[in-house]
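Subject: design request, 246 residues
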């Protein structure tokens, strides 16, 4: 039970890797605050964790709204007494999520705003909301979800920019938090099979990742076994970002 007496707060926890990480945190003894803009799904996800014997609560949080983030962090502290882990997982390529297939220079500005706000600004907001508690506790871990497209670039320009910035955010949190025992890492996956179509994206290893391959890395980075790791970006992309000859 690696995370006994630890409290994790996860954004984008209603599906995909946010949900799976939440389940794994709970299986390993953490109290988990699952947050997502999809209230029904996140509430149900938390209830399933509790039914399985875990400790969890689901809260509606749109990461574009600082007040909702702050309320969820306050709930974590009131209910469980601390916030030890923050996983900034909410995100996605704006063109796909918002259903736009035009070239970037014709994409509506609202779609670009969605991409920057959900993939980057929400993570900065969440850091703002947890860091005071982590500094008082003199411990904490912040994991930011990047993407291989934050390294290679993306045809969804706001997504590529936001995911690159997650690496900068990670280093800045690591710098800011280190004197207080706070660590931060970025995890940058290649294609992950949270959606079947990700199997079509090429990697050097000839396949996409199983979600567990990524969440197992997240859990390791949050654990005490990773106590000397901070400010680092971890590519987990089957070699997609290597470049070089075909
Ligand atoms: N799946 C991949 O291939 C892949 C690859 C690289 C990076 N990533 C990144 O990993 C993260 C998780 O990906 P996934 O495929 O597991 O995602 P997913 O699409 O299954 O889950 C994303 C979650 O974010 C939530 N969300 C959307 N807008 C929100 C908002 N405004 N506020 C709060 N929550 C919101 C959604 O409701 C959803 O539950 C994302 O940041 C994504 O960019 C995924």
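Subject: RE: design request

Done. Sequence follows.
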């Amino acid at each position: 039970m690696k995370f006994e007496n630890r409290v994790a707060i996860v954004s984008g926890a209603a599906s995909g890797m946010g949900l799976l990480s939440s389940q794994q945190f709970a299986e390993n003894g953490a109290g988990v605050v699952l947050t997502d803009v999809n209230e029904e799904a996140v509430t149900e996800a938390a209830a399933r964790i509790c039914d399985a014997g875990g400790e969890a609560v689901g809260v509606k949080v749109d990461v574009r709204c600082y007040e909702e983030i702050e309320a969820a962090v306050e709930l974590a502290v009131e209910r469980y007494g601390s916030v030890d882990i923050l996983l900034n997982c909410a995100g996605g390529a704006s063109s796909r999520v918002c259903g736009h297939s035009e070239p970037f220079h014709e994409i509506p500005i609202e779609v670009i705003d969605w991409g920057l706000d959900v993939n980057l600004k929400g993570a900065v907001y969440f850091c703002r909301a947890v860091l005071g508690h982590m500094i008082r506790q003199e411990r904490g871990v912040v994991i930011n979800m990047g993407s291989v497209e934050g390294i290679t670039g993306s045809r969804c320009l706001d997504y590529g920019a936001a995911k690159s910035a997650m690496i900068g955010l990670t280093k800045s949190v690591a710098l800011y938090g280190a004197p207080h025992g706070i660590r931060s890492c970025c995890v940058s996956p290649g294609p992950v099979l949270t959606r079947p179509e990700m199997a079509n994206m090429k990697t050097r290893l000839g396949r996409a990742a199983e979600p567990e391959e990524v969440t197992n890395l997240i859990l390791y980075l949050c654990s005490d076994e990773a106590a000397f790791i901070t400010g680092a970006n971890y590519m987990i992309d089957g070699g997609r970002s290597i470049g070089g000859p075909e």
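The domain at 7-236 is CATH 3.40.50.720 (Rossmann fold).
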